[in-house]
């Protein structure tokens, strides 16, 4: 059970960090030109959707136990990888 709690705390901290990064990117979009604004807003919308899915999966992890927890963890890892990749791509695009 300790490993599960530690894992959930790690995910929660990472999700919080990514939320701050996405907020910063959204602020940058507001000061961008119209063409860039539309393109980046779509990208940030996709990130927010992935972030929402990650948050939902965290809640599911909190309720799961045993073999079900292991299965949910695999899905959570996949979602986290997608969100991480998306945040990194967005940060690179905004440089």
Summarize the structure in short.
The chain has 95 residues and is mostly helical. It has helices at 2-30, 34-63, 66-93.
List keywords for this structure.
elongated
Percentage of residues in helical conformation: over 70%
Query: How many domains is the backbone divided into?
Result: 1
Tell me the structural class.
Answer: mainly alpha
* Rough outline: elongated
From the N-terminal CA to the C-terminal CA, the straight-line distance is 41 Å
Low-confidence stretches: none
The main pleated sheet reads as: none
Topology order in helix (H) and strand (E) letters: HHH
SS elements, strand count? 0
Strand content: under 5%
The total count of helices amounts to 3
- Average pLDDT, rounded to a whole number, is 87
C-alpha Rg, in Å?
15 Å
Task: Describe the fold and architecture.
The chain has 95 residues and is an all-alpha fold. The chain has one domain. 92% of the residues lie in helices and 0% in strands. It contains three helices and no strands. Helix 1 packs antiparallel against helix 2 (34-63), helix 1 (2-30) packs parallel to helix 3 and helix 2 (34-63) runs antiparallel to helix 3. The chain is elongated and about 50 Å long. The chain starts with a helix and ends with a helix. The relative contact order is 0.15.
């Amino acid at each position: 059970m300790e490993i599960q709690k530690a894992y959930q705390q790690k995910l929660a901290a990472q999700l919080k960090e990514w939320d701050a990064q996405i907020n910063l990117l959204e602020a940058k979009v507001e000061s961008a030109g119209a063409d860039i604004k539309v393109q980046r807003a779509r990208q940030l919308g996709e990130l927010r959707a992935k972030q929402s899915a990650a948050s939902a999966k965290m809640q599911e992890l909190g309720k799961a136990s045993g073999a079900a927890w292991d299965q949910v963890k695999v899905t959570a890892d996949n979602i986290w990888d997608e969100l991480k990749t998306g945040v990194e791509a967005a940060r690179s695009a905004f440089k």
